Predict the 3D structure of the following.
Amino acid sequence: MLARGGGAARALPDNRPYGAGRRGGEPAAAAALALVAEGSTDAFADVAGDRHRIFDLAPAMILVPAAGGAVIDALGRPIEIDKDLTRRWSGVVAASPALAEELAAVIRGS
């Protein structure tokens, strides 16, 4: 995740998304994603394997686009609500549409 500092985005020291830990230290993705919608951070990007559930992402899927941003996966596809509550996502990016695409491209290695 990128955090604002000195007018420019910077990576947090441990390269983990910002947020309170839960379930053994896993970051609170919903809180970190809400910071993007609020404008407190420029972007959220988490490439950790299959750890985000719909209840982590659903608030961001409403708040971030309402604020003019995008929530996509690492392939540039919008995250869509799935009724399967056991499904997990990885490669989640939230930011302005242009920055989200740029970060997804970096994650893909293109």
